Amino acid sequence: DVQLVESGGGLVQPGGSLRLSCAASGFPFSDYAMSWVRQAPGKERYLVSTITSDGTTSYTDAVKGRFTISRDNAKSMLYLQMNSLQIEDTAVYFCVAFWGGRLNWGQGTQVTVS
Question: What's the pLDDT score for residue 59?
Answer without folding.
Answer: 98
